[in-house]
């Protein structure tokens, strides 16, 4: 069962028992913690979405549930979590060391478009398996964070932002190689693609059975972007290699699998949330996308 979205304030109250007013008022949106101080050795973290970003370094064996996926990490891991996708992790080994930092989007304002990196995309790989040498190298970045956040230095949060970027780039270096985008595509096409993806992602996540996506077709997206549907489809095909319908269907399928796996909502409720007025259409759509009916997938 998926819990409600956790805010950063909820996190502080749950883990610290109070809001650290000096941190919230001075920086607004960043903190760093030792893993052992806030998690028991065998307690699983609840499956939920958060309204903040979190980068966690965790030792030992773990199982991670991320959107519709379940992954087992044998050694150590770096988990890069974002507000769009629900997740939790379960420790499989008794001793847990590591650290994690939490921050919100406004903390990173003016420090680059970090959300554009693959580790923060719904189709990316936010769970990275680490060898011991990688683990200790990344732990050293967290150690610097602990040192700087306690320092009496007027610009320490600028320095901490840089350390967050170091963590992100360590994660990116561990990513599989990605195909480079077409260098000749126009800035106009890139902008249309970016605006389309923003409109698409803005409809998710689905957090309650009364929430329904509003944009369900290429024509509806094109209308909001003030362009013709054929032009939108051509631009997306050039920049992503996929049609408007395929991108929309892939995102709906991802959310459908997450809802089937992590909620107890019935099929009719899920199909309505995802824009299907008739559950039979949703069942047909899901079977084509996932090679299983929603009921069989849930089992």
Automatic annotation (TrEMBL):
Residues 190-299 form the HTH araC/xylS-type domain. Keywords: DNA-binding, Transcription, Transcription regulation. It holds the Pfam family HTH_18. SUPFAM superfamilies: Homeodomain-like, Regulatory protein AraC. One of its GO terms (molecular function) is DNA-binding transcription factor activity. InterPro entries: Homeodomain-like_sf, HTH-like, HTH_AraC. This is AraC family transcriptional regulator.
């Amino acid at each position: 069962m998926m819990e409600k979205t956790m805010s950063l304030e909820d996190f502080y109250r749950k883990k610290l028992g109070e809001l650290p007013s000096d941190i919230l008022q001075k920086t607004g949106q960043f903190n760093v913690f030792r893993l052992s101080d806030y998690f028991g050795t065998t307690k699983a973290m609840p499956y939920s979405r958060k309204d903040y970003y979190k980068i966690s370094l965790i030792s030992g064996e773990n199982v991670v549930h991320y959107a519709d996926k379940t992954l087992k990490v044998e050694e150590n891991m770096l988990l890069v979590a974002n507000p769009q996708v629900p997740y939790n992790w379960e420790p499989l080994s008794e001793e847990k060391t590591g650290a994690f930092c939490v921050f919100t989007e406004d903390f990173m304002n003016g420090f680059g478009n970090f959300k554009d990196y693959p580790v923060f995309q719904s189709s990316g790989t936010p769970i990275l398996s680490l060898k011991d040498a990688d683990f200790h190298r990344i732990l050293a970045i967290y150690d610097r964070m602990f040192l700087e956040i306690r320092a009496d230095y007027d610009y320490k949060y600028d320095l901490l932002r840089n350390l967050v970027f170091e963590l992100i780039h360590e994660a990116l270096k561990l990513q599989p190689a990605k195909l480079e985008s077409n260098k000749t595509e126009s800035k106009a096409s890139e902008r249309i693609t970016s605006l389309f993806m923003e409109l698409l992602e803005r409809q998710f996540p689905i957090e309650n059975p009364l929430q329904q996506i509003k944009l369900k077709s290429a024509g509806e997206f094109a209308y909001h972007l003030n362009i013709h549907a054929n032009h939108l489809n051509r631009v997306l095909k050039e920049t992503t290699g996929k049609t408007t319908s395929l991108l929309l269907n892939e995102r709906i399928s991802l959310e459908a699998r997450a809802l089937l796996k992590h909620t107890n909502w019935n099929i009719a409720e899920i199909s309505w949330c995802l824009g299907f007025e008739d559950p039979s259409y949703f069942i047909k759509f899901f079977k084509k996308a996932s090679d299983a009916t929603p009921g069989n997938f849930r089992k």
